[in-house]
Amino acid sequence: MSETGRRPHALDGAVYLGFTLFAVITALASGFATHSIWGGWAAAGYGLAAAHALVVLLRTRQVAPPHRWFWSRWVAVGVASAFGLIAPLLHLVLRRLGGGDWRADPAAWGAQPEVWVIERSASLLLRHGSPYLDVATLGRPPVVNDYTPYGPVMALFGLPRALVVELGADNPVTLALTDARIVFGCVAVAGALLALRLLGWPPVPVGAAQLAVVSPATALNFAVSGPDLAVLGLLLVAIALAARGDAAASGVMLALVVSAKLTAAPAVLVLLVLVFVRRGVKAAAVFAGTLIGASAVVTVPVLAVESRAFVDNVIAFPLGAAEVASPAASPLPGYLLASTGPVGHALALALLGIAAVAITAWVVLRPPETAADAALRIAVGLGAATLLTPATRWGYLVYPLVLLGARLCFARQPEPSAADTAPRTG
């Protein structure tokens, strides 16, 4: 094998060894049972993937012809996926059947709190027409898990479990199958496949799979929680639709995304500019109109039922203005600066503002023309927000990583026809 041919396998080995180290540290040092279980499974998967990369790197053509399936780089991706995503998810879904939700001890959990909170929000939506608790009516001091810091659409992912419970069919099989993580995972996979189909099935490079699928940010999220992956799956569809010039469909899809989690809001400007570049002013107006209209359709009814609870849960709590402070914290630059005191907090916000202005200028002055362009700009925007926001979680890095992986795929999109690329001014 030539030096050039060896290089990808050497890089694969280094990547999987890094992933293995992260998984081992998580398994040994995390105080969450969910994270420790994931770490044990993932360390085995990443370790096997690294070993595969090493074996392939050392092979010779005489011993193992390169056309045999075992020598494909995708074998390592498959092993890492099986042990890093599927196995720990199944383990934790079954573990959750033994109880552990709503306990104060993280060592008892079978899922992260966001899973139970979203399933509860679906039950509240069925019973009262709003997915939010009004903490002022609890008759006790509120706690963190009383809040649901998501938009109304997020409750829809918990509806299968809520319906099973309401109908009294909550046996172990139905409870396992309707775990919100299963729903999140199915939506994420379906969204990614639909986006690829809309863009003509561009080939998926191994590096894209390593970034978007088997990296610890994605794998851990998939096994222990999952809402961010569902949001990303729908966001990829919105990007693909915008790149095709389907303004109305893209606007509706992005409305669902932002109405599920406000984290994705920076995508609005990027896709608006993309639609404008692809189809012109009229299409951009259609995109904006459908985005606003669809957002109103899913949000206004909830506001009419529980406006105060909506504001407390979706706006005040994430901003740290509710009765209970958000526990979001990670050793990222924004948090580290803010933890030094008021001056550091102000500096973190200033850096965040500067980054927002710079990225906005980039989008406007160098507008995205393709799905790959849009994915890159959204990735940079969400990555900057994750790094510089004073209260954030390292797990939100899944957004830029998945979008960067998507960019690698979208960049291989087949060349569109002249009719598809001609701007429509209306």
What does this structure look like?
This protein has 18 helices and no strands. By secondary structure, it is an all-alpha fold. It folds into two domains: 1-109, no CATH class; 111-421, no CATH class. Helix 4 crosses helix 5 and helix 12 runs antiparallel to helix 13. The longest helix has 36 residues, at 281-316. It starts with a helix and ends in a 5-residue tail after the last helix.
End-to-end gap? 56 Å
Number of H/I helices: 18
Low-pLDDT parts are: 421-426
> What is the C-alpha radius of gyration, as a whole number of Å?
22 Å
Structural domain tally: 2
Mean pLDDT: 91
Characterize the biggest β-sheet.
none
Helix-strand pattern:
HHHHHHHHHHHHHHHHHH
Coarse morphology = globular
Helix % is 55-70%
Report the structural category.
mainly alpha
Number of strands: 0
The amount of beta strand, in percent, is: under 5%
What order do the helices and strands come in, and which of them pair?
Elements: H1 3-29, H2 33-58, H3 73-96, H4 113-128, H5 159-166, H6 172-177, H7 180-198, H8 206-212, H9 216-224, H10 227-244, H11 247-260, H12 267-279, H13 281-316, H14 333-338, H15 342-365, H16 371-388, H17 398-410, H18 418-421
Helix pairs in contact: 1-2, 2-3, 2-9, 3-9, 4-5, 7-10, 8-17, 10-11, 10-12, 10-17, 11-13, 12-13, 12-16, 15-16, 16-17
Name the descriptors.
426 residues; mainly alpha; 18 helices; 0% strand; globular; disordered C terminus
Summary of the model, kept short:
The protein is an all-alpha fold and 426 residues long.
